[in-house]
Amino acid sequence: MTDIERDVRGVAERAKDAAADLAPLNRAVKDGALLAAADALVERAEEIVKANAEDVARARENGTSEAMIDRLTLTTERIAAIADAVREVAELPDPVGEVIRGKTLPNGLELRQIRVPLGVIGIIYEGRPNVTVDAAALCLKSGNAALLRGSSSAYSSNTVIVDVLRGALEGTEVPADAVQLVPGAGRESAQALMRARGLVDVLIPRGGGSLIQTVVNESTVPVIETGEGNCHVYVDEAADLDKALAIAVNAKTQRCSVCNTAETLLVHAGIAERFLPPLLTSLRDLGVTVHGDDRVRPFDDAVVPATEADWTTEYLSLDLAVKVVDSLDDAVAHIREYSTAHTEAIVTDSQSAARRFVSRVDSAAVMVNASTRFTDGGEFGFGAEIGISTQKLHARGPMGLPEMTSTKYVVTGDGHVR
Amino acid sequence: MTDIERDVRGVAERAKDAAADLAPLNRAVKDGALLAAADALVERAEEIVKANAEDVARARENGTSEAMIDRLTLTTERIAAIADAVREVAELPDPVGEVIRGKTLPNGLELRQIRVPLGVIGIIYEGRPNVTVDAAALCLKSGNAALLRGSSSAYSSNTVIVDVLRGALEGTEVPADAVQLVPGAGRESAQALMRARGLVDVLIPRGGGSLIQTVVNESTVPVIETGEGNCHVYVDEAADLDKALAIAVNAKTQRCSVCNTAETLLVHAGIAERFLPPLLTSLRDLGVTVHGDDRVRPFDDAVVPATEADWTTEYLSLDLAVKVVDSLDDAVAHIREYSTAHTEAIVTDSQSAARRFVSRVDSAAVMVNASTRFTDGGEFGFGAEIGISTQKLHARGPMGLPEMTSTKYVVTGDGHVR
């Protein structure tokens, strides 16, 4: 075992102990700790900004893009907003202790299925230091210890932020070890975390596709896959074309860098001649590069020929793959082959078409006459999300606080035997 | 890729296609298929018995124990009982299509979270050929394609049983490829199944601890751990000793070969002198070998000294480890260290003791004044179970049909954009 492995297992063991103490704490205690953490972030904002400046300077030296530097940068205003988000988490209902099912069995045994924390949640994430606070707050509220493994590019910021959070916990009943930074910023520390099965209950990678695939392939700790979104909009033959245009444009352009933006548009052949000309004009005006198949290109010279790679790509940019399909079933078949099963939308006025699309498309969210951009914990009314799960086990779609819990059966008798 | 790997991936691909066709089928179609399968098992019972005789003969040649041979053996009566169990699965409610959550969002979007099948479920199991039918029936009812990978010792039986089931499906809308035996009975075929990520949605190992550990460690497909049960009964200082005696004896002896039987008894020091003498006498009369610590052995010469290994062993036999503890918290600490987090019981008349035990013990089921033997899908009223999950993600405790599903968000709008 290397030093880094030993260090990572050390923090994981302390996290496991902290999780045992954290699990039975009631809401008032946890909310008090969250509010103390929010206050401490504001009080010590200057320290955080100073540490962040080191990260930003290093990023600039390394030639990081301005967009990435903007994501990395913290100001006192941004820290105040992050602290407000923590206060909002405090206001959310506590999922722990909720009785999901309960009944009295024929023999008189009283059966209850109760939400309990998962235990220790490891979060592996990329550049944005606000994730450090968000993830810690959501874990704490749901009674879980957080092991935070951020990017090396934000290591100075994260170190101070976690120090601030732990300092705030020290005045409360919540053990400080419920929030810990995983030591080391290299590949080895992430790998040690992925191998800490038995100490860490679940790993949630937050970031780009390659990060997620690495964690999924290398982790022996159970993983919840999040966020990869090759999302589709299918415009059916029976679509209201005004709505279809608005939805397609919104799904691509309203915020193109996020996982629920549309990457491929499928257009039914029966309405292609009426729909594609105005659509392609709108997209061109908004700066979108369209990658079209043979049946799309004749409508606009600016359309770039689509290759096989375009159907699989999560652009996260102002690019859109467009394909003409002969039927709803062909659209479904395309989606089943290429989608990451995050979000797909159909635009149609046909009840039977909507019903068939919804039942055949196997994705975390299926939209009928609505933009893919609505797949979001905030939009769904969950208050906050730790990520959007694109897997089928445990949680699927936006993961709020209830998805950060497990359950326990409590069975009460009076000397019952079989 | 070896021939076996290619064959296993081939059946997995067909299972994935079958799962897509199976998912939208309604309950009447699935129940019809289950009843046809039950009838076919009875009609072709003699074929099955004949194939089973080959497995039994081979087992005898290999010197298999009579207990194992009994588990392996099928008779026309046993097949009739297995067919009846399939008919009972048909009578259970269909979990697919259940709306778990639903609301109209402030912007008018209609949000529903709906149960959908997981897709393709791989089951890796040991000797008993009845599991082939049970698992197939539960998968089919919950809309999932089943990839069955039984033991080589039951390969002839399983081959004919799956042929019978597939034959029955051919007269229905359910695709025959929804039920398939994984080809090959060697280690390589199991490994190929464990590596079929992207084709298989979840693997459920059913069997002993070493089988489960192998699957957990080697699988890249998500796994649900089932069944390993190092279960504890803690007799508190405030226990009603008659109830404690009945529960301890029942938990150990009513059926000692199953996962929810008790393996360790923890006795509070304050009642040890009154409780242990009658308990040890009862256990001895029932043929139980007690492995006791230093504070247990003085009460009975027949007590064998307990070693560290006894605290970790799932005996599945008439053996019981017994330890005297000084407090409820010591009992909880022992459980947290050694338990497999399946089921633990406390016997106490103290509300505060029960409350503390329930909140501190982190197991799938916690019993208060009831035998550990009640952790069971049938006892809980779930009708049937695919296994008892001892992990925290996705499902915990007895897994009925709802635990064999995922969910999908369906969001309906009228041209909604952000």
TrEMBL record, chains A, B:
Keyword Oxidoreductase: yes
Organism (species): Spinactinospora alkalitolerans
Aldehyde dehydrogenase domain mapped to chain residues: 6-288
The reaction(s) this protein catalyses: L-glutamate 5-semialdehyde + phosphate + NADP(+) = L-glutamyl 5-phosphate + NADPH + H(+)
Keywords: Amino-acid biosynthesis, Cytoplasm, NADP, Oxidoreductase, Proline biosynthesis
Entries under SUPFAM superfamilies matching the protein: ALDH-like
GO MF entry, a single one: glutamate-5-semialdehyde dehydrogenase activity
Keyword Transcription regulation tagged: no
A single GO cellular-component term on record: cytoplasm
Functional summary from the UniProt entry: Catalyzes the NADPH-dependent reduction of L-glutamate 5-phosphate into L-glutamate 5-semialdehyde and phosphate. The product spontaneously undergoes cyclization to form 1-pyrroline-5-carboxylate.
Name under which the protein is recorded: Gamma-glutamyl phosphate reductase
Pfam families per record: Aldedh (PF00171)
Location in the cell: Cytoplasm
